[in-house]
Amino acid sequence: NMSALTEFLPAMLSGFARRHPDIKVEIEEQISAETVQALRQGVADLGVFAEGTPADGLTVERYRADRLVLVCPAGHPLAARPSVRFADCLAYDFVGLNRGSSLLNAVTAAAEAEGRPLHLRVQVRSFDAMCQMIAAGLGIGVLPSDACQPMLAPRRLVAVPLAEPWAHRWLLLGHQGEERLSQPALLMLRHIRDGAEAAAAPLASASGRKRRR
User: Fold this and answer.
1) What distance in Å separates the CA atoms of residue 118 and residue 55, rounded to the nearest whole number?
2) How far apart are CA 21 and CA 9, in angstroms?
């Protein structure tokens, strides 16, 4: 999905290409639901999609943690807060992704849980387009923290942590079972796992040092 392709996969794919230059890898960005459908139909060997996407019949494991933040212009009333409750955001217009995206589904579900409408003023197809629309004053938006960071400063945007449990989600790695994967696909699966474990190791180490103090 877009979050994985923007945040985590480029460096991983580059490393895999250096280690296995004889293997051709084809990558396609899709919304999470379509990624799962491609896996079920055998169109894709491996897929990364957002937690909460129905994936019955697939082998699924956690890949990377993904934190969602509120993005707004630097002068916005919510911009100076250390964190913000989603209920406070619902008084403003929103910029979101197109229908069917896991991110839009999460934001819509959160608004429904608050019992209030989501004023979705603009819908676009990418995180960059969302940031452009937010910078133009057309609304605020919820984006993955790591994915949006490079887009903030040039547009004078601010990312405010969302004080909501649903803002901390997992990206999942799915396939039809290792026994059904080709040898090149198995190599890719192991490479993805190694990268995820390496990324998690510094966090575990820091947590361990904190406990010893």
Assistant:
1) 27
2) 17
